[in-house]
Amino acid sequence: MMGADHGAIDHLQCMRDRGTIELVGMGSIENSSRVIVDGALDLENKGNEIAFWGVSDAYNDAKIRNLAGSGSVFIYDSDLVLTAAQDTFSGTISSVDSEGRHLKGGLTVQGGVQTLSGANVYFGATKVDAGAGLVLTSTGSLASDVLVSGGFVNDGDVAGDTIVQDGGMTGGSGSYSALTVLGGGTVATNGKTPLTVGSEFTQKAGSTLVFAPVENGIQPAIAVGGRAVIEDGASITLDRVTTGRLAVGREYALVTAAGGLVGNYGSLTGDLVTDAPFLSFALDKTSSGVALGVERSDIVFAEVAHSANQIAVANELEALGSGNELHDEVAYMTAAEASDLPAAFDSLSGEIHTAMLGAVAEERHFLRDAVNGRLRAAFGTVGAYKGGVQALTAYGPVSAEATTDGPVYWGHAFGGRGEADGDGNAARRDSRTNGVVLGYDAPVQNWRLGGVLAMSDSSYGLDGRASSGSGRGIHLGVYAGTQWGQTALRSGLVYSTLRLKANRSTSLGTINERLSSKYNGHVWQAFAEVGHRLDHGTMALEPYAGLAHVWMRTDSFAENGGETALAGAEGKMDTTFATIGVRAATTIEAATHKLTVSSGIGWRHAFGDARPELAMAFAGGTGFNVAAAPIARNAAVLDMGVDMELGRNTNLRLDYQGQLATDAREHRLGATLGMQF
């Protein structure tokens, strides 16, 4: 538009004909959303006026909101001012006239973010105002000096000097001819490729380097071809978002200067420095550069643990060392995150495996109880089941009393639950067990000899550890009993094989996993009990004493499911139980039924391995021991039973057995239905 005083272009101007549009009079461009230049836009310095949203100001500069396209913009001695930039311009902005003179036109990004991806050869300053941004892509270049009060991302090449002013920031993977960061200014590295300065790099007092390592510190964050000057009071910021995780025991190159380094950084700032209790940082200066050293602080992981199990896990994680995902997850925690570590250590401990080891060893008494009950019945002892059993004769099974002299088979079904309280180290354990016991015995001289087959299902829970387990067992055994007058001896030997399963959830910082495992368990138990019957009117009493030894083993195992998975060693428990007590029974005659009521009370003491422990390890770890809730050393033993004759050929027995200790309880119900055919 030539010579048109106050001529106006009040629409979005799209120039795509490869021609030239010149604005040389007192014309104006009423600013639309953007100006697209695919031809040539000539802004000759003759008092041009480009109005912003219809508000006209008489400048020598040309104002538009936004610049896009791939053409050429000629700015001569004018500055092109972008007030609301948001596009990419891949063409050329030039202030070289037709005679090759370098005029003083420049570019100011006053608002928004402008991207330049072409070769720009204007020689007035490039200014990025506060709150605005300029991005120079890898194909872009600037011939001018750059003054940064906003944000300048340089992935291209700047031939002039770049000065970052108070409140400004620059960074990227491009090259600078010279770079000066004034007080209040920031230079940030991107962690991909070094920021390159061809001649001199200067950081004034009060300026900041925001550091991100390049190739784990192998390359410097800033590579200077000339001299680097770091004034006292310049600082380095290490923050979790930009810097990321640094390897403990490594040095990271910050600045290298071929022309030598003068001065050093005065301080380290950022949340990695102020809020990473397990890390410490130090600067190492040489004549040609400065590096950042990363070490573990004097605070060990175990300092935040509260219990023996937590300390064991913490020490194992510590021993894994830098570079291990679990170790580094802890090392980079904030103080607030570290406050959750005690619970995290518990979740990692694998305590469910140790808890099952102890629970399986303790609950095997259901087999001893069933066998001893059968032997009491065989000899008509106090508290015995009086109903019918099936006797085996040459003619097949026939009904017989429990005290029959012939061979018999018998059965017993049971179900119960137990719990062991936590102790500040181990978690509370809940367990449920049910099963059926089948047996056969026959008289041999003054003895009854027999065999037993049982099947059981158990479940275990550690709610405080988000863990559960189960065990399915098959049990085979032999037993023998005899009686001398009023004195009875009952004994047995049982082997159990179990298929154990465990599932648990782990949580450590950002790591959350679900783990599972399967392995086998093996139990041998030998037991004997002596009782002496005392009759007193309609009541009979039997003081008794029993001894049992349980030899428990679990196979080694490896969990599946993630980085927190454990490998467990073979588990071992060798525990002896001694019990003394007394049983009583009486019979009540009713009009149509006869009831036999029995009860007993005793005291049980456990010797040997009462607290289960198991050795486990993370991949690459040295191993640690974890304890679970102990078997009660001392417990009261209770039993009660009722035999009811439901008919001439039918008898039902209901019984309860319990163990009560200060920190543990177990309750079990059993039912036996005897029928004569």
Distance between the termini: 120 Å
Helical/strand content category: mainly beta
Radius of gyration: 43 Å
In CATH terms, what is the fold-level topology of the largest domain?
Lipocalin
In short:
With 677 residues, the protein is mostly beta strands.
Q: What does this molecule look like?
A:
The chain is mainly beta and 677 residues long. The protein has three domains: 12-240; 308-345, no CATH class; 350-675, Lipocalin (Beta Barrel), CATH 2.40.128.130. Helix content is 9%, strand content 52%. The protein has seven helices and 54 strands. The chain has a 17-stranded mixed β-sheet that branches. Strands 38-39-40-41-42-43-45-48-49-52-53-54 form a twelve-stranded antiparallel barrel, surrounded by four helices. Strand 42 (487-508) and strand 43 form a beta hairpin. The longest helix has 14 residues, at 365-378. The chain is rod-shaped, with a radius of gyration of 43 Å. It comes from Paracoccus denitrificans (strain Pd 1222). This is Outer membrane autotransporter barrel domain. Pfam families: Autotransporter.
